[in-house]
Design a protein that fits this description.
With about 300 residues, the protein is mainly alpha-helical. The protein has 15 helices and no strands.
Length: about 300
């Protein structure tokens, strides 16, 4: 796995679009191997005879992943800065944003965002990266009206994933005027209907009440330690120390992880939208798009 990641990272750091695409495909292939069930030889033969194609691949259940030795090894590697995929994808995204916008580059940006979303779901500690303004600003830059709808949609989904169970990231998002960026894109006449629907989903998600940072830290550390085994506490502590370095050891930064209620966030969002009360009522009546529960 280390060899595959090493080759992938070399490709991702290249200036060549072809090599970047190859690196993205290698990372995607690794994540697919971890998440997809392999078809049996019988299923494969039957599919070839009946459909003339390979059988559809089914995903593993989330609860099954910690029992998978390959996933446990993957998770351990992600705790290391040397092998952390999220950091490499973010660096790749920064380089892509510095290039001229065209069809090829836009496709690479979209693919990178989709992989960032995937890795943040599989390795929640990597979400700590987006407690830093420099990285959260990447998402806001990509929500510029000049970008294509595909990039905007992928950015919204990656943004949601970066905020999951991360109140400190949400505070960073608010501090750098993320709500202004999101609502401005929503109100823009040039924004596509598909993107506006995703923005409404994001607003429902944003308005949900947050779980306290201490509870998140405890539950996350417990689950990660179970995956990592005996050395889990050391590795989780390393990520926690990195978070303290970013936010300050006393946790006094704007991204300190303080939680906000729906009512508090409603007031913030109300500065930019006039119908926030309707969203809140929908959220309370039907759980909104994302269902009930905290961030």
């Amino acid at each position: 796995m280390e060899t595959l990641l090493s080759h992938s990272f070399d490709y991702l750091s290249s200036a060549s679009p072809q090599k970047i695409r190859k690196g993205l495909r290698q990372v995607e292939g690794l994540l697919a191997q971890l998440c997809l069930l392999k078809a049996s030889p019988v299923d494969r033969r039957q599919s070839m005879m009946l459909l003339g194609s390979s059988p559809p691949q089914l995903g593993k259940r989330l609860c099954e992943l910690p029992e998978d030795p390959a996933f446990r090894e993957f998770f351990k590697l992600q705790q290391s800065f040397q092998w952390n995929i999220a950091m490499r994808l973010v660096a790749c995204l920064e380089r892509l944003l510095g290039k001229e916008s065209n069809g090829t580059n836009d496709l690479l940006v979209t693919q990178t965002l989709d992989l960032i979303q995937g890795i943040l779901l599989l390795h929640p500690p990597s979400r700590a990266l987006f407690g830093q303004e420099i990285y959260m600003n990447l998402f806001l830059d990509l929500l510029d009206p000049s970008n294509c709808p595909a990039i905007q949609s992928s950015t919204i989904m990656a943004l949601v994933t970066s905020l999951l169970d991360q109140p400190q990231n949400t505070r960073t998002f608010e501090t750098i005027d993320g709500l202004l960026v999101v609502t401005s894109l929503f109100k823009s006449r040039s924004t596509s209907r598909e993107v506006k629907l995703k923005l409404v989903e994001f607003l429902y998600f944003y308005l949900m009440p947050e779980t306290s940072a201490s509870k998140i830290s405890t539950s996350t550390s417990a689950s990660n330690t179970a995956i990592l085994g005996g050395r889990g506490k050391e590795l989780i502590a390393a990520f926690d120390r990195r978070r303290e370095t970013v936010n300050g050891a006393d946790g006094a930064s704007t991204a300190s992880g303080d939680t906000r209620t729906t009512e508090e966030k409603q007031k913030l969002l109300g500065k930019y939208l006039t119908n926030v009360q309707d969203l809140v009522e929908d959220l309370r009546e039907g759980g909104g798009v994302f269902g009930s529960g905290g961030m």
